[in-house]
Design a protein that fits this description.
heterodimer, A: mainly alpha, elongated, B: about 475 residues, Jelly Rolls, 2 domains, 7-stranded antiparallel sheet, about 15% strand, transport (chain B), transmembrane (chain B), transmembrane helix (chain B), MetI-like_sf (chain B)
Chain lengths: ~350, ~475
């Protein structure tokens, strides 16, 4: 039964992804075609220079130029009606064929957009998984404490901090942290993922990485865990008022095991979903954050691509981000379905 | 008849509901604090012109000439309270009183004496005399120092048949005069001197190499010798461009950050409120309609909602802004296009319950139209919930605008907090520790976010009785 649900959910995710890619290629069709046109003419001009060095007659050159442009436009379906152009652009995107960048290069100097984007994913993942794990640990722990003593001083004061932090831009907090801890009191590096030049041995590399990760992770966790704690508190508190808790208490089960054994067990699925959901939200929100810390991840790529107006990189990065985002949501639903028996059995109509 | 009843009427259901809601809201302390903050923000917006020293900050934020008399990267004036040395603040002297003496039919002399009490340790960056004129005149400024020495600072001719601005910066204009003055006391060969520190320093053997500030009253005699009959001079100003400036200092384009911050308040409120009001209204109606019709319509509407739900909002906004270079209106439109998904799921499940209520059934039996049932009987019940999620959505709208602006993709015709932070980022404020440029805009964003979070969470506590602590 669960497998049917899982397969259905995954299929649904794929369909949504395809639809969104079609929407993208419709929205960005014009600008992408302009870029492609520019690239084609640039490529043909490059070839012309090569040929003219050999020495050929100008008529042939002109004819060659026209033929090559036509050929290349054919490859990219540029002379077809709008619907088919949008369709082919979407197919290209779906097959990860994002074309070549206009200005930007990968770390190794390649111009394939997919390579530029892919080499940055691990960096983003390292930063965000580390901080989200810390975030969830601290947040859930604090949330349970808050629920346990709901309405007391600790609960109220941390709730106020939660609300204060609610509208705080994480990237601004990053700027302030860098200003204080990298320039005024220089104990952390101001950005980047490794020292220049990077250290030789594996162990030294690891230490160097941790050293560079420290400030961004501290910033992210500090901004994040308050909200997580508030959420956990609300869910646990809601469950603590259920009848089964009262009956457990009536049976004389110690408060500790009521809290951790009964209340927390029923609260686990929503806490997990909410946490992962906000991880996804913060994942897209914290993309700008990477730019502040010059962390060479996907967010920084947006920043750089916007600055250099590199459209193919921007769109390729967007498609990959969307793919990761949707995969995250699907995965979330699968985990949730696994944890919550009601979904396993019945499922939505 | 019916109007008769209505005029005496008992309050309608919505009114009663809202009155109840308000009664409960008053009980939540932080909700009230949020409301107070909101009122303060609204007052700031209304009285913006009285609060800022540069009233055109909003419209001429990117106009360099509007800000040229301010110092660059100057800290706020109140750092004087915390530092050992006193820094000269920026002062604008707009009310110079001129006495006019006619010498000959074509020539007249206007004189103004400006007395300036100098009680600081760090001299101003520059002294500027400026105004608008027509005709021709000679400007002569003589400084009488507290120790009795006089320096002939400026002698300059101006002439123009049409209206024109004139601007004299002493640091530039009086270089030679001050240099020869200083050399009377200390003979240092051809060293470039700091004009302003020399003017405000004791005349001793170390006036150039180790200046000691000379405190007291400085008299600036400003003489304007008009050499033609039709010469007119309008709003003359004398500006001490200080070492510290304004309530929150200046940035690297000499702009007054306090003015920018206050001018940005109305945009933050506007963007936040408009975006959340439109998108939440759409979302609530969408959810209700979806639940009310049910069946085929419902499943189609849910699929559409699911697609929007799966779009990563911020990256899409960034890419859209990067490609289409939006104005503030199109940015708000784009945000509304994605923000409406927020309340749909909760609203739909609430509406599914309301749909089963007897009065909805009764309305149906009476032959009420679908539209009437939806808007008259179902949506009003959800209004408190809608307000709560509106309040909680305002900060995210402001945050998204700020983030898009931070990347330099904001509307260049207005000034928002995000744009100030973008300039700070590019102007090296972080690396140079110019905290007065980085901290205030972020605090403002956080404060306005907190305001609406307080209000929203307060409503949330009322709407979710389970969360109450007693």
């Amino acid at each position: 039964m669960y497998w049917r649900y899982a397969i259905k959910r995954i299929l649904m995710g794929i369909i949504i992804y395809v639809i969104i890619i079609f929407i993208y290629s419709f929205l960005f069709n014009t600008v992408m075609e302009e870029t492609l046109n520019g690239q084609i003419i640039e490529q043909v001009n490059g070839e012309m220079v090569k040929i003219s060095q050999v020495g050929t007659d100008p008529d042939y050159l002109l004819e060659y130029r026209e033929r090559r442009i036509r050929e290349l436009r054919d490859i990219y379906h540029l002379d077809e009606p709008l619907v088919s152009r949008v369709f082919w652009r979407a197919i290209d995107t779906l097959t990860f064929n994002y074309g070549r960048s206009t200005i930007m290069r990968s770390f190794k100097g390649e111009t394939d957009v997919i390579k530029i984007v892919l080499e940055r994913i691990p960096n983003t993942l390292i930063l965000f998984t580390t901080s989200i794990i810390l975030d969830i640990l601290i947040g859930v722990w604090l949330g349970i404490k808050k629920a346990q003593k709901a309405g007391k001083f600790m609960d109220k004061s941390t709730s106020i901090i939660t609300m204060t932090v609610y509208g705080l831009p994480s990237w601004w907090f990053g700027m302030v942290m860098i200003m204080i801890f990298a320039f005024m009191i220089p104990i952390f590096p101001s950005g980047g993922i490794s020292s220049v030049p990077p250290p030789e041995t594996f162990f030294a590399k690891l230490v160097d990485l941790l050293y560079h990760m420290a400030l961004p992770v501290i910033t992210l966790v500090f901004i994040g865990f308050w909200g997580r704690a508030y959420l956990t508190r609300n869910i646990v508190l809601g469950n603590l008022q259920e009848d089964f808790i009262m009956s457990a208490r009536a049976r004389g089960i110690p408060e500790r095991s009521v809290l951790y054994g009964h209340a927390l067990r029923t609260s686990a699925p929503p806490i997990l979903t909410m946490s992962l959901l906000s991880l996804l939200a913060s994942f897209s929100g914290a993309l700008v954050f990477e730019g502040i810390f010059s962390w060479p991840g996907m967010g920084n790529l947006y920043w750089a691509a916007v600055q250099q107006n590199d459209i193919p990189v921007l769109l390729g990065n967007l498609s990959i981000t969307t793919l990761i985002y949707i995969s995250g949501i699907v995965l979330l639903d699968l985990i949730y379905g696994f944890l919550d028996p009601r979904i396993k059995v019945g499922g939505k109509a | 008849m019916s109007t008769d009843i209505k005029s005496k009427k008992a309050p309608s259901r919505i009114q009663m509901q809202l009155a109840d809601f308000w009664k409960e809201f008053k009980q939540v302390k932080f909700g009230i604090i949020g409301l107070i903050f909101l009122v303060i923000f609204i007052l700031i917006t209304i009285f913006e012109h009285f609060l800022i020293p540069f009233p055109e900050a909003s419209t001429r934020w990117r106009d360099i000439t509007y800000w040229e008399d301010n110092p660059r990267n100057a800290p706020p004036v109140w750092i004087n309270w915390f530092t050992e040395k006193d820094y000269t603040p920026t002062t604008y002297m707009n009310n110079l009183e001129f006495e006019e003496k006619t010498i000959s039919p074509t020539m007249s002399v206007s004189t103004a004496i400006l007395e300036y009490d100098y009680n600081y340790d760090v001299p101003p960056i520059d002294l500027i005399y400026r105004g608008r004129f027509k005709g021709s005149f000679t400007l002569n400024i003589v400084l009488e120092r507290p120790d009795g020495n006089t320096i002939n600072l400026v002698n300059k001719n101006f002439s123009s048949p049409t209206w024109k601005d004139f601007r004299v910066a002493i640091s530039n204009e009086a270089k030679n005069a001050v240099q020869s003055f200083a050399k009377r006391f200390q003979n240092v060969s051809s060293q470039t001197i700091k004009v302003n520190s020399t003017i405000f320093s004791e005349a001793n053997k170390e006036i150039i190499t180790n200046p000691v500030p000379l405190k007291g009253t400085y008299k600036f005699n400003i003489n304007i010798i008009k050499t033609s009959e039709d010469t007119v001079i309008e709003d003359p100003k004398f500006i001490f461009s200080g070492a510290v400036s304004g309530i929150l200092g200046t940035d690297n384009a000499k702009r007054d950050i306090w003015s920018g911050l206050i001018a940005g308040t109305k945009w933050a409120l506007f963007i936040g409120l408009l975006t959340s009001a439109i998108s939440i209204s759409v979302g609530v109606i969408y959810g209700v309609v979806s639940a009310y019709y049910g069946g085929f319509v419902d499943s189609i509407m849910q699929r559409i909602w699911e697609i929007f739900m799966n779009i990563p909002l911020l990256p899409v906004l960034i890419v859209l802004s990067a490609i289409f270079k939006p104005s503030i209106w199109s940015l708000i439109t784009m945000m509304c296009l994605f923000f409406w998904v927020g309340p749909v799921k909760t609203v739909r499940s609430m509406a599914l319950q309301i749909k089963e209520e007897t009065y909805v059934e009764a309305a149906k039996a009476l032959g009420a139209s679908n539209g009437r049932i939806i808007f008259k009987h179902m949506v009003p019940i959800l209004i408190p919930y809608a307000f709560a999620s509106m309040a909680l959505n305002v900060p995210s709208a402001i945050l998204y605008e700020a983030t898009v602006s931070l990347l330099g993709l904001g509307d260049a015709t207005i000034v928002t907090w995000g744009q100030i932070l973008h300039d700070a980022m590019n102007g090296g404020a972080v690396t140079n520790g110019l905290w007065w440029w980085v901290v205030p805009p972020g605090i403002s964003i956080a404060l306005i976010g907190m305001t609406f979070a307080f209000i929203g969470f307060a409503m949330d506590t009322i709407l979710n009785p389970k969360l109450r602590t007693r």
